[in-house]
Amino acid sequence: ALEGGNLGSAKRWFDRAIRWGGGVEARIGAANVALEQNDSARAEALINQIPVADARGVELRERLKTGQFDRALAAGDFDLAGRLAASTQNATQATLLGWSNLERDNLSQARRWFDDALRWGGGEETLLGATATALAQENLEAARGFLSQLPAGSDRRDALMVQVDLLAGEELYAAGAPEQALIAIDRAEQQAQALGNEELVQQARDQTASIQLAEAQRVYDAGDFAAAKTRADAIVAAEETSNADILNAARLTGAWSRYQLGEYRSAANRFEPLLGTELEATATEGLGLSLAADDDIERLIETANKADEPVAEQLREVGRARALQR
User: Fold this and answer.
1) Can you tell me the distance from the alpha carbon of 39 to that of 87, in angstroms, rounded to the nearest whole number?
2) Which residues of 11-27 are buried (b: 16+ CB within 10 A; e: fewer)?
3) 310-317: long-range contacts (C-beta < 8 A, 24 or more apart)?
4) Is the CB of residue 30 less than 8 Å from the CB of residue 8?
5) DSSP secondary structure letters along 252-311
6) What does the alpha-carbon distance between residue 269 and residue 53 come to, in Å, rounded to a whole number?
7) What is the pLDDT of residue 60?
8) Structure pTM?
9) Which terminus of the chain has a smaller tally of CB atoms within 10 A, N or C?
10) CA-to-CA distance for 274 and 252, rounded, in angstroms?
């Protein structure tokens, strides 16, 4: 009955066998039925009646704990799942706990379980998880260490290598080495293209544009408005990034650079499209100042009349101030 999948009938016969004096075989059969029915308590009670030296009992105990672990993990009972994994020092289960915690952004617990899994004999899947966790923690040295232990030729490993180079680029820029940072990120983009991983390609391009924008803002703050204008315009013209925040910030830097260079009409033409974005407040200020400096009060009033409050009021304030100066 058990082999045929008729668990109800199998249970009845094994129960009868036990009542009628059946020994180890009856209990092994009944324990198998209980495990198939996910009845952990009954399975454990029956397994405890099987001699410890019996290899079939050992296998049943492993199946029992595996089933308990799987159900605990599926139910989100990570404390129970952790106790079960630790009780057997099961590398596979520890790795699953590592990934589960990583998916929940519980990085310290993810690192703990991947470390345990490695101590208990975890292999490639564990190293992949440990690398991903180190990257999430921005621990470049650890990520490189785990990655070096993985065999080449795996797409997952190569994708993590791209992310390592991207993190290296971040750290190089933070250390004041923008050129080296861009080289590392360019290498990462080429690797991502070779993998056909468009998500990582775009991530690399966004990171490049972010550094280029920071450099444009740096030279603007230093008073080199011509260089800031050139760098900001290059980001927009390249169309490499799809990140609207980066593109709009580059447009804003280019607009303010033109204003500082006395190119008021060109500056106004670049400030105006930024109305309605998150940069609206500073764009409105720039638009008003540019139109006032260009003495284009008519356009200033026309734009204010079409704009929503408080943009309209801010532009009218600039117009009134300009009129008083006449």
Assistant:
1) 20
2) bebbeebbeeebeeebb
3) 311/275, 311/280, 311/284, 314/284, 314/285, 314/288, 315/284, 315/287, 315/288, 317/288
4) no
5) HHHHHHHHHTT-HHHHHHHHGGGTTSTTHHHHHHHHHHHHHHTT-HHHHHHHHHHSPTTH
6) 85
7) 66
8) 0.72
9) C
10) 8
The amino acid occupying position 225 is F
The string of DSSP letters for 9-46 reads: HHHHHHHHHHHTT--HHHHHHHHHHHHHTT-HHHHHHH
pLDDT number for residue 36? 67
Structure token digits, residue 36? 């198939």
Cα 28 to Cα 14: distance, rounded to the nearest angstrom: 9
**Number of other residues whose CB lies within 10 A of the CB of residue 302:** 13
Type of residue found at 171: E
Residue where the block lists tokens 């990034």: 241
Mean pLDDT per 10-residue interval, the chain, length 326 residues = 62 68 71 67 70 72 75 89 91 95 95 96 95 95 94 88 94 94 95 94 95 96 97 93 94 97 95 91 89 84 75 73 57
Query: At residue 135, what is the residue type?
Result: L
- Opening angle at CA 35, ends 31 and 41, nearest 5: 80
